[in-house]
Amino acid sequence: MFTVADLQELQTEHPDWQMELVDGSIVVMGPSDYESEEIGTELAAQLRNWVKPRKLGRVTGSSAGFILPSTDPSVSRDLRAPDVSFVKADRLKKTKRDFVQLVPDLTVEVKSKTDRVKVLVEKIQLFLELGSTVGILIDPDERTVTVYRLGQSPTVLRDSDRLTLPDLLPGWELVVSDLWPPEFD
Question: Assuming Cys at both sites, which of 101, 131, 137, 145 could form a disulfide with 67, CB separation 3.0 to 4.6 Å?
Fold first, then answer.
């Protein structure tokens, strides 16, 4: 059974490895495929471009670690890293030079070539159960964006649909097709 301190020590020894702590086990994450990373970067940029000038909060990418709360003190706390996340300004007034002990308000996972959708949905559900307001799964293979909220049926968006997050970012919107990487002639 590993702890956050164990993961931090291992991270110091192997700074190039991306790892998560899940149920006391350290999971080494492989690199994303190029397309998935490009999609995650695009969404993070779109969010950041809306959030930063309005001072609404913080947007991070796949390397930002969140130490999640545990309801059972005998169980090690998880340290997870969504592909994209957003934390409201009033919940994280000053950035930290460490992992943060909170649940992001928005959790986004981008399905890479080798990911299993079921595992990604389980991760999103965990974040929602712990306090995230919205979870999003982006599936480049199906060209869908699925929006999850606790206690509600998921909403599946396609190319011409608009992604909005009125409960977190009133006025922000993104046409789903704008997430997909361009093709150059």
Answer: 101
What are 138's two structure tokens?
């982006």
- The arithmetic mean of pLDDT across residues 157-174, rounded, is 97
> Hey, which bits of 23-169 come out as E strands?
25-29, 57-60, 66-67, 79-80, 84-88, 106-110, 134-139, 144-148, 155-157, 162-164
Q: Residue 53 and residue 135: Cα distance in Å, rounded?
A: 23
- From residue 129, alpha-carbon distances to 71, 105, 134 in Å are 11, 12, 10
> Which amino acid is residue 83, in one-letter code?
D
Q: Please tell me what DSSP assigns to residue 100.
A: B
Query: What pTM was estimated for this model as a whole?
Result: 0.90
Cα 54 from Cα 46, distance rounded (Å): 13
Whether 173 contacts 162, CB under 8 Å: yes
Predicted local distance difference test score (pLDDT) of residue 75: 63
Structure tokens, 131: 């306090």
